[in-house]
UniProtKB/TrEMBL annotation, chain A:
Residue ranges occupied by any 4Fe-4S ferredoxin-type domain in the UniProt entry: 239-271, 316-348
Molecular function terms, GO-annotated: iron-sulfur cluster binding; metal ion binding
Biological source species: Eiseniibacteriota bacterium
Protein name: 4Fe-4S dicluster domain-containing protein
Cited InterPro entries: 4Fe4S_Fe-S-bd, 4Fe4S_Fe_S_CS, Helical_ferredxn
From TrEMBL, chain B:
Keyword annotations from UniProtKB, A to Z: Iron, Iron-sulfur, Metal-binding
Keyword Iron tagged: yes
Protein's name in the database: 4Fe-4S dicluster domain-containing protein
Residues in 4Fe-4S ferredoxin-type domain copies: 249-278
Species name: Eiseniibacteriota bacterium
From TrEMBL, chain C:
Needed co-factor(s): [2Fe-2S] cluster
Organism from which the protein derives: Eiseniibacteriota bacterium
Keyword Metal-binding on entry: yes
Sequence ranges assigned to domain FAD-binding FR-type in this UniProt record: 9-111
Pfam families assigned: DHODB_Fe-S_bind, FAD_binding_6, NAD_binding_1
The protein, known as: FAD/NAD(P)-binding protein
Record-listed [2Fe-2S] cluster binding positions: C256, C261, C264, C272
Listed GO biological process terms: pyrimidine nucleotide biosynthetic process
Amino acid sequence: MRTRYYERDAFPPAVAELRRAYRVFVPVRRGDFHAFAEWDDSVRPDFDYRKTRVPPKGLVFPQSERLLVFSTDERDPEHDILREAPKDFPPQAVVGIRPYDAMAFRVLEVNFDTPEVRDPWWLRRREATTLIGLARADEDATMFRTENYAGPFDERGLDVIVYDLGRGYLAKALGEKGEAALAAMGGDEPAADALREVEERIARAATPELPAGRLRAQPAAPELPTGRLRAQPVVPLFEAEFWDEVAAPCLNCGVCTFLCPTCWCFDIQDEVRKQEGDRIRNWDSCMFPLYTLHASGHNPRGKKTQRVRNRFMHKLKYYLDKYDRGVMCVGCGRCVEACPVNIDIREVAARMNGFGEQVERHDR
Amino acid sequence: MTDYTDRLRAAARRLLGEGRVDCFIGYRRGSLPLAAQPAILTRAEQADSLIWDPSCGMNLAHYAVGRADRIGIVATGCVSRSLVALALENQVARERLYIVGVPCTGMLDAGALRRRFPGREAAAAAYEGPRVTIAFADGNEELAVAENLARPCRTCAHPNPVVADEMLGEPVASPAVPAVPEEAAAAEARSAAERWAYFCEAFAHCIRCYACRNACPLCYCPTCFVDESRPQWVGKSSDPTDTRTFHFLRALHLAGRCTDCGACERACPLDIPVRHLTSRLNAEAKAIYGFEAGLDLEERPLLDRYRPEDLNDFFK
Amino acid sequence: MIARDRNPYLPYPVRIEEIITETGDHSLKTFKLVFLDPADEARFAFLPGQFAEISVAGKGEIPIGIASSPTEKGYLLFTVQKMGVVTSHLHSMRPGDRLGLRGPLGNWYPWERMEGRNVVIIGGGCAFSTLRSSIVYMTDPSRRPKFKRLTAVYGARCLSLLLYSDRLDEWKGEKSGIDMHVTVDAMQESEPRTPRWQCHVGFVPAVVKEKIKDPTDAIVILCGPPAMLKFTLPVLKEAGFADGQIYLSLENRMKCGIGMCGRCNVGGKLVCKDGPVFSLAELGELPRET
């Protein structure tokens, strides 16, 4: 297992070395927020960032992607026959991805790579992607832990983990992809004290203290309360009375789903310009009524409560039951931060988890 | 401003308790220190969950649309204007509304605070009079609310409810407001090419989540034009042309209807200045027709009326 | 099922061979499709109850149940109701036009369980298509001995809205191997078609009550509009059918058809992949949200 040490100033040039063999995506500041962007000469990476506003999910599962192409020109012997849109999948490295966003790909993969069918675009782009993660104990107050996010040093989703030690970075390869990337980055063998410091930092994080600046007077659990969910029978939970109250403030916008690193729903649309056609996949949102509207006008989730309930049930119950790999959430807190009406998954999870039990709900 | 909380709770308790209304729309404390959550109460005992402070910025008029019951609602100037506009468009019935008016001194802009304290995270906020104290991990900051207002509040000409069934306080003085909002004026100074470049850049990172549309109380169409499939007016991908078309058309649909509450910008997860487009149209409506939406229950909406003296030199 | 190594989004090119207008109001047409590459037919091995995504280039895709039987070789039949963007365009197309076809998708009626048993088929309206497939499949001389008594109840609003009139004549015949009951909600005064066989007048549940009385060793497969299901299921239960004996085919809005795009879920189940056929017992364990 290759480990390398970089002085603080030496890290960006080492990452730049990757550009010889990879398309390199890095966090950049964009207005008030950060976003992942391809590192070309017009952008400057900012590895001191904490969280991107839009997750890097789109680097493997783009918001809009041309899947198939066709011609509607009847003079073309191949007219109206759909074929794969020609594209290549060059190696790409996502440098500075945080562990929760990396874990999100593991949450997503069960949808796109299944025992029966496999999504070819997901597979190829995922295969071409190397995740070089940034580990630093700087979780903000909207974040929390789940089975799919064990904290800022969670290396499960990564190919390389890079510990920020302040004066420099210590990088550790976590598999073949990571070995290759780290070899391309160069760097020095770490000194013993750097390795020891990493261990200390991990040990400190393993006994989670409340991150500084927690929200409430009473401590909010850093773990998303989901322990009782697996045992909850699905139908009574679905029929629970609290859903109307949870959904009441919801505006039915797509913020929570579009900013979610683990939401995968999509729509497929045909677009034709002159006689050249594309079949395009776009992110969709279960918050939109159109998502489930039948051509007949019937809508099984025509009401706001039904849609809000489906979102939380999918994330915290259906996914859990179906795949047996935790809840469909990596605790990034983006939905908590960005919801215009402050619907908070931590509170919803607590209600679902406590359903059927006489729990004392603390007043807000 | 906080003194209104007690009066508001008393009003809601009385209205629900006496059966004067079936529900009461207000705000309760959110889970984040600078957030208030819209709440729809149905029982008098819930009244104590209501709050009133400068975090109560999301326009509540949205929640009055489509309800068949008798609604109590707390309203500032902009919420009341939205209700008037909605009543004129038959989306709410004035006689089923009981408006509890609050003279408004403006709401905080969470985005501005984020910019002001980059990298620091608010752990709690306490409001007292015109000041707010924000607790950060590394110490408290005390600020004047008036210096950290959301953009529409900075140029608000109608801070007092334009219609109310009872008022929780004495009207506040309307601030001196520029004839053309700052954003619109800034746009005015640019050339067409510069404006286009600005627009393309400002809206480039839109993710089409439609939070701006859904937060807008006046965007109540059962099927928005972007969701129509027969015909399909706008493509659904993140193609920049489609994204721009959405924003342009949405703004135009609000011409003469927008009450400039800023819910669109408040809801945008990417801080896109969505309101620039509508505020420009508002300035136009005021300059050409002397019209501001939602001020008068007796005055038909701008695009729903004709006067001989209306500007008509666009006829060539 | 689509082979795992195949791009599941890529349709097989097909040609419209024939279009049959099924109903007097022209709202339902059956499209006879043939593969442009005959080798694709073998790749498209299916069982009755499955569906496919029909693809109109430039308009999109639509999930439609397969109306033909695997025993009908050389072509596929799809009965399509004119409804949304894609189906409306389909209805304007002509023989010779090209379409795409993705599938076969979803599960099928419980053929292993049905073999050696009595089978009851209940259908209403345009949802009869996969039941047509099933009846043709079961009554094919090569397969008929595998089943015991076959009984079917099929209803439409009026005679002119009955599908597959050519087949109905055959199924009503004495040697068809199936006891077929056809019913219409009401007899119109000026019916364009006068069947040679006896037709009930009344709703499907009433005919089921009269004709389907023996749950012994039987499996019921049902497909029809919500109202039909709502009133037929209690009749079956009253007759003694258990939830595990009754299978329904569901419809939901779908896009991908392969369990990835998310929208067709009922609780944790995806109608496109885990369905469209569910037993009543399975549905009882799912949230009620159809």
